[in-house]
Amino acid sequence: MNKSFVKFVTDFGPLVVFFFFYYNSDKDLKIAIPPFIIATLISLFVVWIIEKKIPMVPLVSGILITLFGGLTIYFDNAIFLYIKPTIINVLFGLTLLFGKFFTDEPILKKIMGKSLPLTSKGWDLLNKRWVYFFFGIAILNECVWRTQSEEFWVNFKVWGLLPITFIFTAFQIPLINKYKINE
Fold this sequence. Notes:
Helix content is about 80%, strand content about 0%. It is an all-alpha fold. It is globular, with a radius of gyration of 18 Å.
């Protein structure tokens, strides 16, 4: 089986499951969350079977989806699901911000260094940009869920945050090209 296809399905499959159940249950989070959690856990299991490890970002995401989804159902309060993206982005931002104090180089370099050869200055700049991005997305998520309807937030989470992330990533290409080490 094509590894890229499997990665795509494990990354986006749980989201498709969530949308399917959300929009086929008259937009009821209590009905959409359990299949979302199950699909997320299945995706993590599939990744583990194929790669014999689970990368940190999907693992943390899966744990938080299960935790906050479970809290949302248990307490019958959607706020737990709304704050999940905020918490994830703040955690990622803090990890990148303070990671350099625990290692001699930016955490982003430790994660991507083998696939992206950059100068030290390039890694520092890229790391800072991602710190700002994660904190900015956390603030944006808070603004949206606090001021908009649940349906708007659900759509924003996918059709807003995902494109924003892709666009931000694309805007990093000039920096990467400028500081790339030619081998």
